């Protein structure tokens, strides 16, 4: 575990532990983070807890743009964490996630 | 189809064809307007004869002439009433402006069809190429003593109610009159009676049958109208006839009834019906029966150059006395005469009458009473309030309706009647809103703070605000506010509110017809493409059919279900296409834990199973063990990472309480134990569940089997519900619901055997799987397809697909594997990993058997 510029950055093991098209939850320091691996490519990290009612975002369905919380179908942009489903729900924090030669690296900084 | 342009009607060097119209009442005038609208003034020199010395006027306003003058006329000796412009349809100038020669006050007495001329009572002779007869009709005066003062003049105080002269004559008379008798309680008679009553007269209506307005109303409706009119002080003499009008000093002094009794009065209005004016036609050798007989082009059957329109025309045996058919006839006639559409044809009219009689609203359309045994008849009567309503439905189409006292539904009914459109499954909704604000008027009237979506707490104001912010479609408002995105039962109301705010239906959102939002195809087309291109995975469908090949989160579940249905054997499973419940075969709860429901077919369990369930609950500290509505045992609050262990310890198969799938068959104890049981409902329920367990579909499927019509398993409110009836038979209900929506199922069939019940259940479910929209429950699907249609396809095999449906259902049954057994090994990495690390689960309170949080 290394830290730089006060941001926690963690190597979390092989990217392949996340099935393509799904998300999995990790702990980065004290922060629960859901990392998503859409079929269209890329890695995205959001705080793992839905700001609406605490749903597990890592269990949500996703496409190339958004993840949908399994509890009430609120949708959040993978890249920014913005809630795009209406109904006055807060955005969720977005973090940086990278594929470092097959290894997943998440930093608690904005992507 | 070539146009039959008639050369003599073409504009030809200034010698235009001669068009003569006889009759300048409403139908003559309307025919003229229609002809002019089709360029008639270019085609014809037009001459009009009218024997009333006025331009044409709106006869249906006559009763208003009578009633409206009431206010000022009482003390006014020379109350001649009405010179309101609106009474006259077309002022005399209109004729001049349109180049029409009007001969008002000239009566045509003969047609010479060989010379093609008409002769007037002023000695005039006018040639024609095309002649239109619109001679209308006149009041019928039944023969009785005292009616006539001379051959042509009525006894002073006796009136017809047909012309402007009649109305004005009555107005002159009412100032000195105190009691009026109206002979004939039809529509016109009641209007006259109401008008006279407004002038302060005591009014007696004499009608030869017990049924007022018997042309339009049947007995019960008429009775309600009668009592309402009597409440307003009108005197009714029903079932009696007038035998004589009593005359004193040359004027009316009373009437005598056929029973010999007399009634004093100083005014008599005769509204005993009308007779078409056909004397001219008879004299001129045209075929007449009750009126002048015409073909579908509105031509006399004897003479292609003579057209007939309005109350003097008899078409296919019908003579119409109201204004609607006249409009339709005039349009056809004008199409043919001008050549605008030489093939135009009149096919008869369906009559709709709406009027106010003495403040009582009455509307009637189509037939008055059921005519066939199979006709549906919905009747509502609230005599205290003077409301009576009926609708008559044949083969799913509205063929008649009568409304007395409350006509608030007349617009919707008229629309359904005219367009023969689909009717609500619950017929009574035709008359009532049933407490739900489901017509646009009431949606518009709701206060802004009314909560429309009870799941997501969206008010009417929120939706209206959305429209004001620029949303143009219902779905845009639903997306923005999440209204209708919970249980979905408010969608109809959301639509009403948004459409009211948009001031109309709003932009048609093509996405409404898509099976899933991300693929712009409806279900049949989508299935065709999937089959044609052999698309067997969700990602393949997106790549081939989505705009720019883009995947869409909201479409994945629906596509997964569809592909699993279409390719039971070789579907390519992509776990990311599944909702979390289907990835881990359990139902996600609010805290991210899951509920586990083992299969217990038919709701029958055993001590051994119960012991195991109890042991599992103890071992894993299950926070709550609960019986479900579907007669199962639910273990709630199981963390994801413990699911496999719980399944293994249970040693029971999945009960599928999480999927858009076949869920449960609820049963009663049937013949084995129940003293009322008529059929072995428990056996049938278990067999159905064992056969169709876990079959996926567009939405969940909940079933029940009851052993007798006491229906303890609630079969009538299930997607498929079966009830044993006497005689070893099973009734199969489909499309029932008792959740967000409540609907009693419809009887699909009554079958003789257990096996037939299983087979039809499977065939219905397969048809539903193949044809229902995503998330469309059977309670919407059955009425959308139509019960009769479904019975045809599924029971009678009208489309010859029953065997295929059975085959495909069999394939789905054969492909079944228990997911709990299959996923004892992880299907994907981290399939059962905790998704909320650091949060201690369960978060739900642990309940003891006493129900209190422990």
Tell me about this structure:
The complex is a heterodimer of chains A (111) and B (854). Chain A has a single domain, classed as Rieske [2Fe-2S] iron-sulphur domain (Rieske Iron-sulfur Protein), CATH 2.102.10. Helix content of chain A is 0%, strand content 42%. Chain A has no helices and 10 strands. Chain A has strands spanning 2-4, 7-14, 23-28, 31-36, 44-47, 61-62, 66-68, 75-77, 94-100, 103-107. In chain A, the strands form 2 sheets. In chain A, strands 1-2-10-9-5-4-3 form a 7-stranded antiparallel sheet, with no helix packed on it. A 3-stranded antiparallel sheet of chain A has the order 6-7-8, with no helix packed on it. In chain A, strand 3 (23-28) and strand 4 form a beta hairpin. The model of chain A is unreliable at 1-5 (pLDDT under 50). Chain B has 854 residues and is of the alpha/beta class. Helix content of chain B is 30%, strand content 21%. Chain B has 28 helices and 39 strands. In chain B, the strands form 11 sheets. In chain B, strands 3-2-1-7-20-19 form a 6-stranded mixed sheet. Chain B has a 5-stranded parallel sheet with strand order 9-16-10-11-12, with helices on one face. Residues 1-13, 70-85 and 434-441 of chain B have low confidence and may be disordered. The A-B interface holds A 16-22, 24-27, 30, 32, 34, 38-40, 48-49, 53-68, 70-71, 73, 75, 85-87 and B 456, 479-482, 485, 518, 539, 550-554, 556-557, 574-581, 583, 588, 590-592, 640, 828-830, 833-839.
CATH architecture of chain A: 3-layer Sandwich
Strand order of the largest sheet of chain B: 3-2-1-7-20-19
Helix/sheet category of chain B: alpha/beta
Q: How many independent structural domains of chain B? A: 6
Number of helices of chain A: 0
How many E strands of chain A?
10
Stated plainly, the CATH topology of chain A is called Rieske Iron-sulfur Protein
Query: What's the helix count of chain B?
Result: 28
Name the chain pair with the biggest interface and residue counts per chain.
A-B, 42 and 39 residues
Q: State the domain count of chain A.
A: 1
The secondary-structure class of chain A comes to mainly beta
Shape of chain A: globular
Task: Give the CATH H-level superfamily of chain A.
Answer: Rieske [2Fe-2S] iron-sulphur domain
Order of helices and strands of chain A: EEEEEEEEEE
């Amino acid at each position: 575990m290394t830290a730089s510029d006060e941001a926690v950055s963690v190597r979390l093991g092989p990217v392949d532990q996340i099935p393509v098209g799904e998300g999995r939850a990790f702990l980065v320091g004290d922060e629960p983070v859901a990392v998503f691996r859409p079929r269209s490519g890329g890695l995205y990290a959001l705080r793992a807890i839905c700001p609406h009612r605490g749903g597990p975002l890592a269990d949500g369905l996703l496409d190339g743009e958004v993840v949908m919380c399994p509890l009430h179908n609120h949708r959040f942009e993978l890249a920014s964490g913005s809630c795009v489903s209406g109904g006055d729900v807060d955005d969720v924090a977005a973090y940086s996630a990278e594929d470092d030669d097959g290894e997943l690296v998440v930093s608690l900084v904005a992507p | 189809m070539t146009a039959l342009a008639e050369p003599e009607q073409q504009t030809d060097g200034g010698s235009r064809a001669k068009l003569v119209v006889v009759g300048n009442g409403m139908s003559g005038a309307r025919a003229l307007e229609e002809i002019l609208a089709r360029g008639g003034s270019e085609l014809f020199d037009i001459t009009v004869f009218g024997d009333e010395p006025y331009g044409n006027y709106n006869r249906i306003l006559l009763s208003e002439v009578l009633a409206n003058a009431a206010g000022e006329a009482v003390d006014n000796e020379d109350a001649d009433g009405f010179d309101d412009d609106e009474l006259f349809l077309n002022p005399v100038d209109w004729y001049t402006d349109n180049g029409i020669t009007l001969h008002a006050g000239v009566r045509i007495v003969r047609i010479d069809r060989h010379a093609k001329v008409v002769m007037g009572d002023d000695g005039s002779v006018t040639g024609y190429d095309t002649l239109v007869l619109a001679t209308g009709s006149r009041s019928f005066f039944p023969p009785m003593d005292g009616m006539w003062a001379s051959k042509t003049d009525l006894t002073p105080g006796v009136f017809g109610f047909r012309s402007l002269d009649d109305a004005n004559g009555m107005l002159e008379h009412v100032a000195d009159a105190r009691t009026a008798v109206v002979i004939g309680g039809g529509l016109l008679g009641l209007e006259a009676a109401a008008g006279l009553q407004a002038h302060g007269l005591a009014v007696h209506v004499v009608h030869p049958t017990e049924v007022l307005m018997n042309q339009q109303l049947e007995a019960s409706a008429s009775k309600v109208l009668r009592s309402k009119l009597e409440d307003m002080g009108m005197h009714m003499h029903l079932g009696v006839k007038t035998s004589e009008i009593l005359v004193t000093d040359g004027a009316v002094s009373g009437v005598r009834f056929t029973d010999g009794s007399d009634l004093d009065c100083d005014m008599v209005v005769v509204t005993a019906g009308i007779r078409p004016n056909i004397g001219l036609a008879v004299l001129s050798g045209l075929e007449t029966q009750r009126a002048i007989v015409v073909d579908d082009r509105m031509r006399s059957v004897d003479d292609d150059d003579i057209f007939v329109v309005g109350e003097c025309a008899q078409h296919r045996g019908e003579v119409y006395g109201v204004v609607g058919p006249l409009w339709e006839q005039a349009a056809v006639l004008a199409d043919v005469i001008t050549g605008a559409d030489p093939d135009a044809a009149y096919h008869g009219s369906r009559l709709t009458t709406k009027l106010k009689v003495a403040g009582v609203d009455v509307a009637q359309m189509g037939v008055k009473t059921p005519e066939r045994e199979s006709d549906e008849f919905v009747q509502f009567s609230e005599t205290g309030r003077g409301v009576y309503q009926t609708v008559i439905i044949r083969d799913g189409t509205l063929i008649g309706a009568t409304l007395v006292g409350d006509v608030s539904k007349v617009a919707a009914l008229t629309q359904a009647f005219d367009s023969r459109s689909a009717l609500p499954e619950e017929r009574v909704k035709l008359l009532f809103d049933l407490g739900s604000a489901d017509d646009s008027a009431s949606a518009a009237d709701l206060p802004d703070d009314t909560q429309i979506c009870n799941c997501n707490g969206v008010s009417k104001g929120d939706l209206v605000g959305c429209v004001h912010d620029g949303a143009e479609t219902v779905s845009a408002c639903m997306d923005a506010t999440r209204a209708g995105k919970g249980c979905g039962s408010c969608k109809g109301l959301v639509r009403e509110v948004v459409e009211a705010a948009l001031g109309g239906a709003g932009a048609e959102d093509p996405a409404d017809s898509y099976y899933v939002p991300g693929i712009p195809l409806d279900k049949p087309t989508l299935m065709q493409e999937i089959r044609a291109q052999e698309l067997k995975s969700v990602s393949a469908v997106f790549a081939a059919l989505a705009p720019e090949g883009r995947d869409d989160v909201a479409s994945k579940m629906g596509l997964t279900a569809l592909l699993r249905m279409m390719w039971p054997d070789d579907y390519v499973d992509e776990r990311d296409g599944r909702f979390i419940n289907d990835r881990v075969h359990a139902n996600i709860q609010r805290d991210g834990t899951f509920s586990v429901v083992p299969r217990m077919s038919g709701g029958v369990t055993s001590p051994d199973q119960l012991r195991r369930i109890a042991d599992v609950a103890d071992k894993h500290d299950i926070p709550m063990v609960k019986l479900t509505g579907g007669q199962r045992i639910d273990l709630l609050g199981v963390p994801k990472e413990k699911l496999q262990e719980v399944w293994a310890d249970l040693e029971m198969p999945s009960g599928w309480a999480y999927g858009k799938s076949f869920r449960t068959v609820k049963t009663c104890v049937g013949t084995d134990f129940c003293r009322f049981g008529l059929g072995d409902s428990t056996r049938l329920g278990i067999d159905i569940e064992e056969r169709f367990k876990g079959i996926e579909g567009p939405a969940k499927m909940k079933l029940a089997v009851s052993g007798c019509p006491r229906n303890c398993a609630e079969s009538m409110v299930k997607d498929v519900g079966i009830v044993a009836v006497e005689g070893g038979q099973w009734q199969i209900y489909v499309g029932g619901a008792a959740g967000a929506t409540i609907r009693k199922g419809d009887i699909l069939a009554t079958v003789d055997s257990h096996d037939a019940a299983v087979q039809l259940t499977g065939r219905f479910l397969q048809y539903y799987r193949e044809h229902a929209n995503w998330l469309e429950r059977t309670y919407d699907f059955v009425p959308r397809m139509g019960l009769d249609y479904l019975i045809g396809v599924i029971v009678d095999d009208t489309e010859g697909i029953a065997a295929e449906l059975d085959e495909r259902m069999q394939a789905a049954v054969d492909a079944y594997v228990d997911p709990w057994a299959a996923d004892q090994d992880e299907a994907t990495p981290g399939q059962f990993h905790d998704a909320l690390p650091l949060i201690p689960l369960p978060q739900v309170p642990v309940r003891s058997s006493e129900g209190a949080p422990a």
